[in-house]
Specification:
Blueprint: H1 9-21, H2 25-28, H3 37-42, E1 50-51, E2 57-58, E3 64-68, E4 75-82, E5 89-95, E6 101-106, E7 116-119, E8 125-130, E9 137-143, E10 148-156, E11 166-168, E12 174-180, E13 183-190, E14 195-203, E15 212-213, E16 218-219, E17 223-229, E18 233-240, E19 246-253, E20 259-263, E21 266-271, E22 280-285, E23 288-291, E24 314-316, E25 328-333, H4 335-351, E26 370-374, E27 380-381, E28 388-389, E29 395-398, E30 403-409, E31 414-421, E32 425-432, E33 435-441, E34 445-449, E35 478-482, H5 484-487, E36 491-497, E37 503-508, E38 516-522, E39 527-531, E40 538-546, E41 551-558, E42 574-578, E43 583-588, E44 599-604, E45 607-613, E46 621-627, E47 632-639, E48 663-664, E49 670-674, E50 677-682, E51 687-693, E52 699-703, E53 706-710, E54 716-718
Antiparallel strand pairs: 1-54, 2-27, 3-4, 4-5, 5-6, 7-8, 8-9, 9-10, 11-12, 12-13, 13-14, 15-17, 16-17, 17-18, 18-19, 20-21, 21-22, 22-23, 24-25, 25-26, 28-29, 29-30, 30-31, 32-33, 33-34, 34-35, 36-37, 37-38, 38-39, 40-41, 41-42, 42-43, 44-45, 45-46, 46-47, 48-49, 49-50, 50-51, 52-53, 53-54
Length: 725
Amino acid sequence: MSRNTVGWIGLCVATMLVASLSLAADESRRVAEQPDLKQALENAPLLRTESLGEPARGVNVWERWLVPNRDGKTWDVLQVYFKEYYGPTWLYAIDLGTGQVRKQRLPDHHQFYLSGRALGFDGKYYIATPSRKTWSMDLFVYDPATNTVEERGEIVHGLGGEVRPLVVGPDGRIYGTGTRGNQVGLYIYDPKLGKVVKDFGPVGPSHPNGAWSRYVMGVDDTHAYIASGMIPAWYLVAVNLETGEQKVLLESPAERVMDIIERFPSAYARVPQGGGAPDKEYWLHHGQAIPMLNSTPPWPKQASPWDKAMPKPEVYFDQIDPDAQGNAVLWYRSREDANREKEKARQSAAAKPKSQAPERANKLESLGWKSIRLEGVATYPHRINPLSVLPDGRLYGTGEDYVGTFMFDPKTGQTTYCGPRVGLAPYTTIVSGDKLYLSGYSGGHLFVFDPARDWTLGKGGPPGDPAPDQADVRSNPRYLGDFDKTTRVGLMHSSALGADGKLYFGGFGLRHYSGGGVGWYDPKTRQMDGFWKPLSGYAVQWIAPALDGRLIVISTIRAADELNDNRAPEEAKLFVYDVSQQKIVREIVPLAKGRTTGLITEVAPGRLLGLTSDREHPERSILYGVELATGEMLFTKSLPSPVSIDAHWPHWVDPSYEYHAFVLGPDGFVWTYLKDVLVRIDPKDASVHVVGRIDPVGWPTFAGRDLYLAGPEELRRIRSIAPAH
């Protein structure tokens, strides 16, 4: 997320072009000595920036739960609003029986998104999530009788993980799991006693790069069933509840993630086979995986806590995103009303001539819909992802954590809020024609945005007027597909435009694969593809076009590849990909045994400038030049300041890394940071010119001679900072 390079006919042409357009060889090797550079960096003046406000504002709304009331007749909707993972979180408990809304602030340092949840036989809703401070499993309990959440505190010490399923057993106890280092864990909580009655400790196989459990686990009267996985495989583990004995029932490759589906009072497993073969399904019963031959489980039917409730109501969430004033609307109707009205609509449509359009009811109330208004929903400013300059000169930006899209017009100074949801965490954007393409996390999702049209994601109307599906042609932005299927990349963070018109994206696997991959999308054919095998063991750090996009240069970080016995190559490489030949045609090692090849950009046809960390001297960095046609190193220059690029993307690993860009400015110089000092690098002699200190640093983007800074929550500008060229 082949190395043997053969002769390259295309490079002959490239070499001729470089010889005619690039600097002479001796001139390209001329490197300015700067004995006073360290002092100049230390004495760099603080640059004054102009604040343009906090345009990326919003709140995450993905998490919501339906909980039956104890009367067995009504339901509660629990809508969770949160700024970010482990950040400020609010719970709106909406009682559909009374119409009352209770607002409650949940404790910080907990991730209620992806929390484990189970309805107990006592009618209470149990929620498990680890504390970020103690990394121990904490328990919260929602009581429909009071519409409030009670914090029970730590129940299992040392149990964490992003995924932490809960399930109620046929004995009425709550069973939970999570991550214990390279293994998963298992515990039993007794609601009657209000405590954990058994902690099984680590269970299942050990995974060299950390274990994961799936989103659902299973339990019957004798065993618990956990899907434990990551690299090198996924396993289904059965744990004897009496003796603690463990055994692996099923196994699947890492790229084929198995699932457990609850079927009270037990569960069944679904195991993908790959190669177009259908999934295999197994009943999980008394410590065995029994091939599923029909839909009848091998255990007698038993009523679960959910069976006491009436059918779930139909709930419409397209207006649950708050507006600028913090107001949102929840719509709902009973399942009985929904079925009755749907049948009426079906009969009406059948009775009308096909040429006659169906009539839309004037009042939603006549269709059984009721609305509840949510007021005072908190929204938050978000860190700003890298900006993009649109063809009309406007700047497009997105907030981190999937929310807060905006456009800023430098001509008017006006900010336009686009919409609450993005559809992905966009770490890279690229303009092609009049469209903007976005990719990032997770799964290497790819979206296209038309700035000339209204934003639709997360902006649905009332029932009957929903926002179009994100893959629908009417959706803006519109979902195009995922790169992870062909590249194994979970997070794309760099992009480049190829001479073939394709859009190229580079990233790394993140969760199931530490290596890198490159994907591409063709706007003309709407086809997407990519590769990963040549980059096994090399996480992609940066990609840059060269020779007008005929080449895509891939900068990498050496990484232990879980798919290759956790072996890492000796040194990071630059990979040169020829778009016409559709293959890697050259590999270049800029620094012997270097961990990373760093940030790169083309500064003359076929000539690359790079900036990377100094492995032997962490307080320094290395600037280098390379000729792509020959792979020849033109120079290396030691710089007396570090560059924070020695960790994998993204910011949660190294907060300073994402602010580092290597931008060819309007003055023909390369702009970047050395620590927190903004500098200009002259490609002719590699001389470094100090501009000034930025506090805090931010991702630089030029619009003309003006420099815009993203990254922190505040959008900033420095006017006319680039010298006239």
